[in-house]
């Protein structure tokens, strides 16, 4: 499904084929769409409106107001007015709080995805559509090539991927920016130009300014899309192999740690073993940035020699014949105040709910060595679990000043009281990244990524 005429609109039939290639929709699909008001996202709304209506589904438009420009709130309101004219429900999601001085675009992107995913979850929507297109994909490949990325980076953006409870879909990766603007013009719909798209402060804007030069050397969007398609195909195979390795080797423990059987891990091809280790580290430690390949290679070599280390916020070492991946105690430093009946995500990995029976807010913090000794002394000997030291010290625990109130995961009750009315303290391990996440999905025909 490549572009043959960049002045042509995207037809309903072409778009339906792109959506069918993504698969996985319910009979009456509920879809959310992230809309900035730019031409690409406006075109996606127009195409989705028709596609959803034909199937008896529903569409929700979501706009994130990053608050980075004085006019952003007015622009979000203008998008809402445009959606009202089209008869599409719309919500504005605001990114509150301090904004970083460095890495602003990356932070804004992370905040945008977090807000959009939360809004989908609240609305019971499984699919979040984003308007990245063929030219965005080409820019992504160029940026990652400049940074020395391997297969994963050169695969660009996935057409479909799981993000927690939401599936992120990009049905426009086979269409050019010009065709999307033509689609808006054909339906008499205006759009907002984002000035950051032309701000040389940002790498993507600098690349856009060099498009003609790069295209003259053969690095046009079509060629770069082919690079992404082929790299994505290789990545999909590697991720399938990694999923197979983890299914054989990994055990996830409810206290927030993972063990890996050494034989399949060390017997796997190096690239697959490295990916397996990386996914285990991310699931337990949730590092803000992927662990570098060189560090993973050193870790794999150390494990082969019977040694261990700390990496990605985790302690990794051999324990009782298995590779233990546990949270590093010095990394679990978060302290949160939670009101009675409140719920928080602590340390980025435990879904913790505080019982309403507490008379005042409690502090959630890592148990620590002294806390473990105090808590175990209160239990009957048979109720004290046999846990590794790093796991013990990084368990979520409840405190009132220096008084230890409870450790929801150890020696306590779960669920509700006998009368079924009063929920107890509860903590559930919810890794920031699924250990067995679906393979990277590549959908293509002979002329490019769909």
Automatic annotation (TrEMBL):
InterPro entries: EF_hand_dom (IPR002048), Rossmann-like_a/b/a_fold (IPR014729), TilS/TtcA_N (IPR011063), tRNA_Ile_lys_synt (IPR012094), tRNA_Ile_lys_synt_N (IPR012795). GO terms for molecular function: ATP binding; calcium ion binding; tRNA(Ile)-lysidine synthase activity. Its EC number is 6.3.4.19. ATP binds at residues 36-41. It comes from the Bacteria. Its main location: cytoplasm. Keywords: ATP-binding, Cytoplasm, Ligase, Nucleotide-binding, tRNA processing. It catalyses: cytidine(34) in tRNA(Ile2) + L-lysine + ATP = lysidine(34) in tRNA(Ile2) + AMP + diphosphate + H(+). One of its GO terms (cellular component) is cytoplasm. GO terms for biological process: tRNA modification. Residues 1-25 form the EF-hand domain. It is found in: Cytoplasm. Ligates lysine onto the cytidine present at position 34 of the AUA codon-specific tRNA(Ile) that contains the anticodon CAU, in an ATP-dependent manner. Cytidine is converted to lysidine, thus changing the amino acid specificity of the tRNA from methionine to isoleucine. Belongs to the tRNA(Ile)-lysidine synthase family. The N-terminal region contains the highly conserved SGGXDS motif, predicted to be a P-loop motif involved in ATP binding. HAMAP family: tRNA_Ile_lys_synt (MF_01161). NCBIfam families: lysidine_TilS_N. This is tRNA(Ile)-lysidine synthase. It comes from Azospirillum oryzae.
